[in-house]
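Regression report. Comparing outputs from two consecutive submissions.

Submission 1:
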Amino acid sequence: MDFLNLDIDEFGYRKNFVEYNKICLVYSFFAICSGYIIDNISKHIQTKYLNNKHPIIMIIIQLLLITLFMFSVEYYIYPKFGNSWQSITPGLFFISIFFGMQFNLFSNLQSLSSIA
């Protein structure tokens, strides 16, 4: 992400309104894209291999996919980006949008409540 000249250390994004919006939009874009991909992978697994059954198994699989993605980003792809999830406002945008994109997870959780 250095190619975007995003200063995510030392709260450099707070320089002015344009920098703040730029980093919030970039984080939001990455959250939408990655959340959409993870959600679609889990939908594919659920329809192809589980025949839209077994919501508990699918919840576990999707949570493992999310954990694997977040671990990969935080430790291998761009550690500063992973660290920013805990320390700056745009990082909170990323996490909230990323988890908000997990529609399949929410629908499986909802189907559990209708079973019980």
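Submission 2:
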Amino acid sequence: MAMSTEEDKTETYPNKDKEKPLCSCVTDPFTSLPPGLRPRNRSFMDDLRKVICPGCGLVYWTNRKTDFCAECEKNTARNAAG
């Protein structure tokens, strides 16, 4: 059973007449602002910083205040306590 091209179009896009394009003010409320003042999407990497551990030289990303990696921090705590 071969379908005509008109039937193909209606089956491919059944809701085409019901879909209305959205205004940019609905999708992005900051369109009137210049690009420099628009809020940015925050990335999970924004809070991290890349550091080199002064104890062992490991390069890693962290959000902690100390630059020591977890291993060196444990070793430092053990040496101070004992």
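Expected: both submissions complete independently.
Actual: both completed, but the second showed a warning that disappeared on reload.
Relevant detail on submission 2: Strands lie at 49-52, 59-62.
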